[in-house]
Amino acid sequence: MSEEKKRKPALNWILFIITIVVVFLVGMFTASIVERRAETTAKLQPETKIDEWEVDNSVWGKNYPREYDSYLKMKDTSFHSLFGGSARIDYLEEYPALVVLWAGYAFSKAYEQARGHI
User: Fold this and answer.
1) I need a surface site. Which of 17, 40, 85, 98 has the fewest CB within 10 A?
2) 33-52, pLDDT tens digit by residue?
């Protein structure tokens, strides 16, 4: 009987610790759900009113400055990197076999790497 009394406190402590961990995880899960719901209800408050069919990028840049700055960086066409960059690359000059592979297609005459659309 004394052995059973010794085991019960250890079992009680294990159950207590497991309960604390489960309550903590449920609380973290609940906090995550509340945070995501708050993100969905928050809406962008534009600084300036933009017409529905506005095509001028500088007007949009007032409300979206980071995106507009990124757009303006496309003007620089001198950057060349291992993965492309913004420099003009003529693929037919670099890979002459493409001319043969694409014979009969319009892009067998001129084929350049896609670049920004500024």
Assistant:
1) 40
2) 999 888 877 766 777 888 88
Full 3-state SS string of the chain: CHHHHHHHHHHHHHHHHHHHHHHHHHHHHHHHHHHHHHHHHCCCCCCCCCCCCCCCHHHHHHHCHHHHHHHHHHHCCCCEECCEECCCCEHHHHCCHHHHHCCCCHHHCCCECCCCCC
Position of tokens 């694409």? Answer: 102
Q: What percent of the chain has pLDDT over 90?
A: 25
Contact between 79 and 85 (Cβ < 8 Å): yes
